[in-house]
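JOB MANIFEST
job_type = single_chain_structure
chain_count = 1
residues = 75
[input]
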Amino acid sequence: MLDQALLLDRTSNAVHDRWRYKALALQILGQPTEALASIDRALELDSNNAEAWLIKSETLPALGRLTEALDACAS
C-alpha cells in the first residue's frame, strides 16, 4: 500500500522525499535491504539530497558494506 501511495503523484517535486521517508521507516523496522532499495530510488530522483546520502551511509553498515558507507558519506 505504501508503494501505491508513493506512485500516486509523480509530478510532485517531493516524490524523492517520500522514498526517503520510506527508507527511514524500513531502516527503523530492521529491513536494511528494503531500506537501501528505497533510498537508492530517492537518490535516482535527487542525487544532491544530503539527507538521502546520510540515510544510505547509515543503512549500508547493516549489510556489511562499510566501504560503500564511507563513500556515501563523501557524496
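[summary]
The two ends are 31 Å apart (CA to CA).
The mean pLDDT is 86.
exit_status = 0
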